[in-house]
Amino acid sequence: MLASRTCRLNTTRSTASAGARAICPLRSPALQQRRCVAARGLGKDVVEGWLDLAKLVASEGSKAKSPYEELAYQIGRDVYVDIAGWHLFLRDMSAVPGLKMSQALATKLGPEVAGSRRGLLESDVAAVLKKIPVELGAGKTRVSLFEVMPSMCVSDLVKILDDYARNA
């Protein structure tokens, strides 16, 4: 298995001229047997580390999900703010520590949308976005979420909410 092997350095050459170079294990089976040695203990460490990572990833999915988790995912995937040409998606933006902006919007707008089959008007969504403060420059400046969100993203948010209302 090539993933659990490591190559010895070719030390027969002088280090002054070309220096030590690694020998490729894929050149021929004869070279592979003669010049590659199995690393001791590496496989166990890698496997145990991977299993720890797998447990962490698996435990993420076992958390209790809110009824608006899918809505939060769609908002976070498609809606962003634009700051000096940089797009910051709402899934990456914190509303408060431990809560992403997409989750906060889904929690706020989800109940309003779920009650109606038609969704919300763009003016209703804009009114909610205008009430959400966004701090810039480590709190030096405070603007509303509506001010840093392009009009196209506000329209996309309304479409996401309409689709959610139809499917809820």
Describe the structure.
The chain is of the alpha+beta class. The protein folds into 2 domains: 2-61, no CATH class; 69-167, no CATH class. Helix content is 48%, strand content 18%. It contains 7 helices and 10 strands. It has helices at 29-35, 42-61, 69-78, 101-114, 122-130, 145-148, 151-167, and strands spanning 5-7, 9-10, 21-22, 36-38, 80-83, 86-89, 94-96, 99-100, 133-136, 141-144. Strands 1-4 form a two-stranded antiparallel ribbon. Helix 3 packs across helix 4. The longest helix has 20 residues, at 42-61. Mean pLDDT is 74; it is low at 1-21 and 36-62.
Question: Can you give keywords for this protein?
Answer:
168 residues, alpha+beta, 2 domains, two-stranded antiparallel ribbon, globular, disordered N terminus
Mean pLDDT: 74
Quaternary state of this entry equals: single chain
How are the strands ordered across the major sheet? 1-4
Low-confidence stretches: 1-21, 36-62
Roughly how many Å apart are the termini?
Answer: 50 Å
Number of domains: 2
Q: What is the C-alpha radius of gyration, as a whole number of Å? A: 27 Å
Question: How many E strands?
Answer: 10
Helix content: 40-55%
Structural class designation: alpha+beta
What is the N-to-C order of secondary-structure elements (H for helix, E for strand)?
EEEHEHHEEEEHHEEHH
| Residue fraction in strands | 15-25%
Q: How many strands, which pairing sense, and closed or not: the largest β-sheet? A: 2 strands, antiparallel
Structure annotation, total helices = 7
- The rough form would be described as globular
InterPro entries: DUF3181
Pfam family, one: DUF3181
